[in-house]
Write a structure and sequence with these properties.
CATH superfamily of the largest domain: P-loop containing nucleotide triphosphate hydrolases
Family: Belongs to the FtsK/SpoIIIE/SftA family.
GO molecular function: ATP binding; DNA binding
Strand content: 5-15%
Helix content: 40-55%
CATH class of the largest domain: Alpha Beta
Membrane topology: Multi-pass membrane protein
Number of strands: 15
Bound molecules: adenosine-5'-triphosphate
Subcellular location: Cell membrane
Largest sheet: 9 strands, mixed
Protein name: Cell division protein FtsK
CATH architecture of the largest domain: 3-Layer(aba) Sandwich
């Protein structure tokens, strides 16, 4: 407390002293100023009174009286002359600084300049005006007089100008280099504007110069000189341009080959060399300002941020999220491992051998591989047996073996043996728990790992959805499709954090996927205006699909601006903080679109869904949107060519006919499956037979409950807004709405190509799908193209451009 009050006391005293000192200085400056001004008017009258300082009867004319007259006499007349005004000026600035703490001019700088001019100006004024002591002061005159005896008038003048020059050099940092740089820049600017004007008058001037010079290096020097220092060269050199190569006199070769008198003027050129360097310096300066520098800077910034905060962690927002645990899945211990008795194996083997023998096919060896649902008998036929013969006898062999689900693989790819798959009389269920717990799945580094089940050789089968990149599933009702879908979703839920993956569920059956409602705020994506994340109303699907197309376009733009090709590279770059969130960059989660009953969707929502699906399937792979489409009826009008072409990965559960099998797998086999999760998987090459892992509804319920009860995001992942339009083909309505700016151009594109396709407009005019679609509707309304015809292009109703132009005018 005591200390504090002491401090305050000192502070108070200090400020009092400051105020008094400041005031004193201020008043002094005013007194001095008035005295000095007044001195110039009254000095003659007052000068004789100065000595009688204490005589009351004698007064002074000066406004500050005798003191004022004396001050003027001391500082101006006997002192430094007119520059004495600097003293009140300096005191005024100082008083303001002390009183108000405001530095109008920098005190120390002002003082140093003041001292210089207090010395310089009186001498200079004495030199110019002689004995005019009111200007130079007596001191100024005496010093000048002394200097004159030492250096003479000219010498003194030179000394004064030299000191002034040094003063300016020091004050304005005027080095020779800096001056000549400025001078050159100014000159270049001038020359450019002059040469621009003169170009028309003397177009060949430069060419003539080049002709005279052979050495390309000297040409370079010449052009530089002609541009920058030509004016400064002596006239004789300017005229005799052949001598100019000596400028590169630094090069011995040129020097040797030239006559001696030509070398006479190197001194003139030596001055030019720094000028050349200057120009080079300027060029290198502009290079430094190129954007490459900026990119480096950005990278440096990102490095700095990374070292300070570490890489960006998308999981941080839900840092406490716990991945589902294994005990949420049911253990079916009683049914695993596989049980098959030797008798059954022996019996089947014998049957196969005798059946084949009946058809005249001899076997040299046979091997059995026991799988969960089927056993594979691998046969090596005797030499000379044609494989096609066995393939043709497939149905007969199956009949003889009297078992459903026999599939003959002739030959087994890469082995040269023939495989006969015979169902086990006691199939073993593959539980989701065992496959999720498998090392293969646990240790996988895949982006979107999916564990389907177990292969015929009882191996867990894990594959990457990101690589597929889309999946088509088909199977008759009750054969395990829904379980299969759940197995896929479960695999992903066990491996992915909510920040990395979002699902869009379309479930026209309204029951299958509703379980996932609980994880809406963790794993689901939806349209901003929709209440339910899981879409059960087929009419809303179109908006969602189009919104996904918009999301896709947006993501492509982000990838483009980040100079990367895939979502993986993009996210890695984002994690390294090399992408600026202020420029719209964000961590992109994978989006998996699951459509449970595609046939139903096509039936109710029509063909409109086909285009966005095909578009997504074609383009979405790189930006992390993957499609899983399941259907009961794999007929050609549901799985059209366009869709099939973009879904190389397919899963087939049991189907009822060979035709369906061919539609889904492009081959037989799916009709011979035994159901209950028995499936075939292909990515375009070989077929892999598998037993799908079984995950029951209560298990899925437990998992979603486990995730849903944890802290989630405030809302589902919001897809970009998309407002549906009437694309039903009611033309007049479409045209009533505002005609697109590019309508006429699009019409010309369509008519000249005679092809009514939206993608043509998109491609030729670099438009997004939605806008191109809108224009197409307007073209239909104007009668330029025919109505929508599904996967086929619309008919073009105008045959030539002339007719079109007339029509456009009338419109
Ligand atoms: N992987 C499997 N392992 C064991 N049993 C299975 C498996 N998949 C399905 N099943 C059995 O088949 C039944 C029907 O399966 P699921 O509900 O998946 O058929 P679905 O093809 O979806 O039929 P729908 O199209 O009518 O919905 C299940 O209740 C189950 O008993």
């Amino acid at each position: 407390m005591k200390n504090n009050s002491n401090d305050e006391e000192i502070k108070r005293k200090k400020s009092l002293i400051k105020t008094i000192l400041g005031l004193l200085l201020l008043v002094s400056s005013i007194i001095l100023l008035i005295s000095f001004i007044s001195f110039y008017f009254s000095w003659k009258d007052d000068q004789s009174q100065l000595t009688s300082f204490f005589n009351k009867n004698i007064t002074a004319e000066n406004l500050i009286g005798k003191i004022g007259a004396n001050l003027g006499e001391i500082f101006i007349f006997n002192g430094i002359g007119i520059i004495a005004f600097f003293i009140p000026f300096f005191l005024f600035i100082l008083s303001i600084k002390i009183l108000f703490g405001k530095e109008i001019l920098k005190i120390w700088k002002l003082l140093s300049h003041g001292i210089f001019f207090i010395i310089w100006i009186p001498i200079f004024l004495a030199m110019i005006f002689g004995t005019q002591w009111l200007l130079s002061g007596l001191i100024g005159f005496e010093v000048y007089d002394y200097l004159k005896t030492l250096l003479g008038t000219v010498g003194t003048a030179i000394l004064l100008f030299l000191t002034l020059a040094i003063y300016f050099i020091l004050e304005f940092n005027l080095s020779v280099d800096a001056v000549s740089t400025k001078f050159n820049t100014l000159k270049q600017k001038k020359e450019i504007s002059v040469s621009e004007k003169e170009e028309e008058k003397e177009p060949f001037e430069e060419e003539i110069i080049y002709e005279k010079i052979e050495d390309p290096k000297t040409i370079k020097s010449e052009t530089q000189i002609s541009k920058s220092v030509k004016d400064s060269l002596p006239k004789n050199i300017e005229e005799n341009k052949e001598e100019i190569p000596i400028i590169s006199s630094l090069e011995p070769k040129v020097m040797e080959s030239k006559p001696v008198e030509a070398i006479q003027s190197p001194t003139e050129f030596e001055i030019d060399i720094p000028a050349d360097e200057e120009i080079i310096d300027e060029v290198s300066l502009t290079i430094e300002e190129t954007p490459i520098e900026n990119i480096n800077e950005e990278e440096n910034i990102s490095e700095k941020i990374v070292t300070e905060f570490g890489p960006y962690d998308p999981k941080l927002e839900l840092a406490r999220y716990k991945y589902p645990t294994l005990d949420l899945l049911k253990a079916y211990n009683s049914i695993e491992p596989i049980t098959i008795n030797n008798e059954e194996l022996e019996e089947n083997k014998n049957k196969i051998v005798t059946t084949l023998a009946n058809y005249g096919i001899g076997i040299s060896s046979i091997k059995a591989t026991i799988g969960p649902t089927v056993t594979l008998y691998e046969i090596v036929p005797e030499a000379g047996v044609r494989i096609s013969k066995i393939k043709n006898l497939e149905d007969d062999i199956a009949l003889s073996l009297a078992a459903l689900g026999i599939r003959i693989i002739a030959p087994i790819p890469g082995k040269g043996t023939i495989g006969i798959e015979v169902p086990n009389s006691n199939p073993t269920m593959v539980s989701m728990r065992t496959v999720i717990a498998s090392q293969k799945f646990q240790k996988t580094e895949m982006e979107l790992p999916i564990v389907f089940g177990k292969t015929i050789s009882n191996e867990t089968f894990v594959t990457d959805l990101a690589k597929m990149p889309h999946l088509l599933m088909a199977g008759a009702t009750g054969q395990g499709k829904s379980v299969g879908l759940n197995a896929i979703v479960t695999s992903l839920l066990y491996k992915k954090h909510p920040s990395e993956l979002k699902f869009v569920f379309v479930d026209p059956k309204k029951v299958e996927l509703t379980l996932y409602n609980k994880i809406e705020r963790h794993f689901l994506a939806k349209l901003p205006d929709s209440e339910e994340a899981i879409i059960t109303d087929t009419t809303k699907v179109i908006n969602t699909l189009n919104s996904l197309c918009v999301e896709m376009d947006n993501r492509y733009k982000l990838l483009q601006s980040a100079y990367v090709r895939t979502i993986k590279e993009y996210n890695e770059k984002f994690k390294e903080r090399k992408l600026n969130p202020e420029k719209g960059h964000r961590f992109l989660p994978y989006i998996v679109l699951v459509i449970d009953e595609f046939a139903d969707l096509i039936m109710t929502a029509g063909k409109e869904v086909e285009l966005p699906i095909a578009r997504l399937a074609q383009l979405a792979r790189a930006i992390g949107i993957h499609l899983i489409i399941a259907t009961q009826r794999p007929s050609v009008n549901v799985i059209t060519g366009m869709i099939k072409a973009n879904f190389p990965a397919r899963v087939a559960f049991r189907v009822t006919s060979k035709i369906d099998s061919r539609t889904i797998l492009d081959g037989n086999g799916a009709d011979q499956l035994i159901g209950k999760g028995d499936m075939l998987f292909t990515t375009g090459n070989e077929l892999i037979r598998m037993q799908c892992a079984f995950v029951d509804t209560p298990e899925v319920d437990k998992i979603t409950e486990y995730i849903g009860s944890q802290q989630g995001y405030t809302d589902a992942y919001l897809l970009p807004e998309f407002y549906g339009e009437n694309t039903s083909g009611n033309g007049s309505e479409a045209l009533d709405s505002k005609k697109d700016e590019l309508f006429n151009d699009a019409a010309r594109v369509i008519v000249s190509a005679q092809q009514g396709s939206t993608s043509l407009i998109q491609r030729k005019m670099s438009l997004g799908y939605n806008r191109a679609g809108r224009i197409m509707d307007q073209l239909e309304a104007a009668g330029i193209v025919g109505p929508f015809e599904g996967s086929k292009a619309r008919k073009v109703l105008i045959t030539d451009l002339n007719t079109l132009e007339q029509l456009l005018e009338n419109l």
